[in-house]
Amino acid sequence: MAQATLPPEVLDDAKARRYNADAAGLGRLRAGAFVAPALVLISLFLVFPALWVLYLSLSNYRLTGAAAAAPQSVGFDNFVKALTDPEFWSSTWLTFEFVLGSAVIGQVVLGFLIAWIMRDRTGPIKRIVEGLVILAWILPSAVVSFLWVALLDRDGGTLNTLLHAQDFAPLLDHPMLSIIVFNIWRGAAFSMMLYGAALGNVPPSHLESARLAGASGWQQLRDVVFPHIRGHVLTNLLLISLWTFNDFTPFLLTAGGPDGKTEVLSVHVYQVALQGGELGYGAAVSTVILLINLVVAVFYLRLLRSKK
Amino acid sequence: MSAIELRGLTKVYPGGVKALDSLDLTIPDGEFFALLGPSGCGKTTLLRTIAGLETATGGAVVIGGRDVTGVQPGGRDIAMVFQDYALFPHMDVTDNIAYPLRIKKVARSTREQKAAEVGARLGLDKLMDRRPGQLSGGQQQRVALARVMATQAQAFLFDEPLSNLDARLRLEARTFLKKLQHELGVTTVFVTHDQAEALAMADRMAVMESGHIRQIGTPAEVFQRPANTFVAGFIGSTPMNLLDGVVRGDTVEVADCKLAVPQSAEGLLRDGEKIVYGVRPEYNGYSAEPVDGSLVGKVSIVENLGASYLVTLDVNGVPVQAVVPEGHEPALGDEGYALPRRDRALIYRDGELVSA
Ligand SMILES: Nc1ncnc2c1ncn2[C@@H]1O[C@H](COP(=O)(O)OP(=O)(O)OP(=O)(O)O)[C@@H](O)[C@H]1O
Ligand SMILES: [Mg+2]
């Protein structure tokens, strides 16, 4: 502030440049002091654990026993073990199914459909539909998983009672399908809201112009709507792919079972590291997950940038 | 190419706004028809109802002898230019122009040839590979026109297509559009709130007020003989003088001045009846010397119109305007005399024109 009150001729070139680089006029030290608390928090809770995981992944650290007291470095053994372990690969494949089915296809399509159908609607119907969808999103995981277990349970589950069926056990017979449907239901709200906002950006005259030319609903989507919301679609895909990839809620429904049929990577890490006690190995798998996330993110960001 | 006929067309928006009130209108084949009116009078609504983008609440839309009231916009065989042109930003000029043909499943080579042909006609030949974002406003407007022309629709609808252009380009586009329409001979309905545009371009025009048509006619008819005081007050670069008066034998008494009865109302007035005397400032001859049968007053305002001046006289408390050529403008406070032209002045009874 003191510099701002100086007459302009006092500010020589170098000073002017510094003034521009330091818009708040605080000086390096004081500006640093303002940022420090945030940096400390980020380091403490993000950077340090990440580095700690990297360190653990190179050791034979265990939850209990001798290796817990004095872990030893084992080089890349954990990574080699993970990449040669068929369970790891089956978990990766299950995660892929889960992300593709529930996020990339399920949530995107359902969220978009609801947003598209509700786009020029007003009044109670729209509010009720949106309210219900958002409710599924904001309820705590523990609550919704309990609700779904109660719904799908073999013994006296709501679905069984409604269908008058005996022994219909979706969680046992179609475990992957169950958690996919669950996650679509759970997460469609975000996509719906994002597409709702995106559709508001499509100029009505463009849609009308297509309608006058005789374009069908699908042609309007392809020629007018999609080109306008392409960026939103990619952002949406990026976010929900990563969220779903790292989602742990399936564990609350199926605990990875039956028979590991729903043991997605996040559940797999939990099983090997905390149930099996192999923290070092779990850390290595986590690192691989991190790398996969990075690849996915870079892929979408590339696509987004290629738009321009 | 075909006539447009509207029968008792009514449009009530949800919420109860009656934007069109049982409106009847026939636009013959090949006519360039302008819709004019103040903001909110229902011009856009009328156009959109013809296009089918709004569903009519009542009445019928007939295009080329076919009742299309319940037909989807795409089935009406009409083309529309929107105020914002509605060009697709991700398609180049060729694809934009050819889009309606693509929807009609015309082969790629045919439609590209057609787009090139129409584009060349509108002077777009060097711009065919550009995207709309790389074009100026005037060029975008021509692309929108080209897209409409390429469809070979039965009728064209334009919603204020010139309002995004600057004043000069607007004049050019106006001339260009009129010429183009006459060459193509396609029935065209044109919405504008710029009366100069309507007067200059239209074969016939309608003046609307809150969902009703107040007058239909050629621009000359509407300008010279407004059918009612609404149109009289709306049309013209300077509004018409509408003065309350009383008939006294073969004169009309306006603001304590005696004026001759205009030619158009001769023999149609009853002694003693209350009327409105209308005369455009352009037809109100100003003189500094006393003249018989004129409006006498003190000059209260002098406004510069460029090549002429608009002089406002205070005639016993009633403002009366007259146009004075440059070089003859009076000074404020001068005594002035305004003599309406008898062949141009009009009489309105209960708001409607009195004429044989
Ligand atoms: N979607 C709508 N819902 C409710 N009322 C509407 C809607 N669109 C227009 N109106 C109302 O209908 C009337 C006519 O509107 P319209 O857009 O046809 O006017 P306009 O003559 O085109 O005006 P302008 O010259 O300002 O474009 C207005 O009173 C307007 O408020
Ligand atoms: Mg309008």
Automatic annotation (TrEMBL), chain A:
<keyword id="KW-1133">Transmembrane helix</keyword>
<dbReference type="GO" id="GO:0055085">
    <property type="term" value="P:transmembrane transport"/>
</dbReference>
<feature type="transmembrane region" description="Helical">
    <location>
        <begin position="184"/>
        <end position="203"/>
    </location>
</feature>
<dbReference type="GO" id="GO:0005886">
    <property type="term" value="C:plasma membrane"/>
</dbReference>
<keyword id="KW-0813">Transport</keyword>
<feature type="transmembrane region" description="Helical">
    <location>
        <begin position="93"/>
        <end position="116"/>
    </location>
</feature>
<feature type="transmembrane region" description="Helical">
    <location>
        <begin position="279"/>
        <end position="301"/>
    </location>
</feature>
<keyword id="KW-1003">Cell membrane</keyword>
<feature type="transmembrane region" description="Helical">
    <location>
        <begin position="224"/>
        <end position="245"/>
    </location>
</feature>
<comment type="similarity">
    <text>Belongs to the binding-protein-dependent transport system permease family.</text>
</comment>
<keyword id="KW-0472">Membrane</keyword>
<protein>
    <submittedName>
        <fullName>Amino acid ABC transporter permease</fullName>
    </submittedName>
</protein>
<dbReference type="InterPro" id="IPR000515">
    <property type="entry name" value="MetI-like"/>
</dbReference>
<feature type="domain" description="ABC transmembrane type-1">
    <location>
        <begin position="93"/>
        <end position="300"/>
    </location>
</feature>
<feature type="transmembrane region" description="Helical">
    <location>
        <begin position="34"/>
        <end position="55"/>
    </location>
</feature>
<feature type="transmembrane region" description="Helical">
    <location>
        <begin position="128"/>
        <end position="151"/>
    </location>
</feature>
<keyword id="KW-0812">Transmembrane</keyword>
<dbReference type="InterPro" id="IPR035906">
    <property type="entry name" value="MetI-like_sf"/>
</dbReference>
<dbReference type="Pfam" id="PF00528">
    <property type="entry name" value="BPD_transp_1"/>
</dbReference>
Automatic annotation (TrEMBL), chain B:
<dbReference type="InterPro" id="IPR040582">
    <property type="entry name" value="OB_MalK-like"/>
</dbReference>
<keyword id="KW-0472">Membrane</keyword>
<dbReference type="Pfam" id="PF00005">
    <property type="entry name" value="ABC_tran"/>
</dbReference>
<dbReference type="InterPro" id="IPR003593">
    <property type="entry name" value="AAA+_ATPase"/>
</dbReference>
<keyword id="KW-1003">Cell membrane</keyword>
<dbReference type="InterPro" id="IPR008995">
    <property type="entry name" value="Mo/tungstate-bd_C_term_dom"/>
</dbReference>
<dbReference type="Pfam" id="PF17912">
    <property type="entry name" value="OB_MalK"/>
</dbReference>
<dbReference type="GO" id="GO:0055052">
    <property type="term" value="C:ATP-binding cassette (ABC) transporter complex, substrate-binding subunit-containing"/>
</dbReference>
<dbReference type="GO" id="GO:0140359">
    <property type="term" value="F:ABC-type transporter activity"/>
</dbReference>
<dbReference type="InterPro" id="IPR027417">
    <property type="entry name" value="P-loop_NTPase"/>
</dbReference>
<dbReference type="InterPro" id="IPR047641">
    <property type="entry name" value="ABC_transpr_MalK/UgpC-like"/>
</dbReference>
<dbReference type="GO" id="GO:0005524">
    <property type="term" value="F:ATP binding"/>
</dbReference>
<keyword id="KW-1278">Translocase</keyword>
<protein>
    <submittedName>
        <fullName>Sugar ABC transporter ATP-binding protein</fullName>
    </submittedName>
</protein>
<keyword id="KW-0067">ATP-binding</keyword>
<feature type="domain" description="ABC transporter">
    <location>
        <begin position="4"/>
        <end position="235"/>
    </location>
</feature>
<dbReference type="InterPro" id="IPR017871">
    <property type="entry name" value="ABC_transporter-like_CS"/>
</dbReference>
<keyword id="KW-0813">Transport</keyword>
<dbReference type="InterPro" id="IPR012340">
    <property type="entry name" value="NA-bd_OB-fold"/>
</dbReference>
<dbReference type="GO" id="GO:0016887">
    <property type="term" value="F:ATP hydrolysis activity"/>
</dbReference>
<dbReference type="InterPro" id="IPR003439">
    <property type="entry name" value="ABC_transporter-like_ATP-bd"/>
</dbReference>
<keyword id="KW-0547">Nucleotide-binding</keyword>
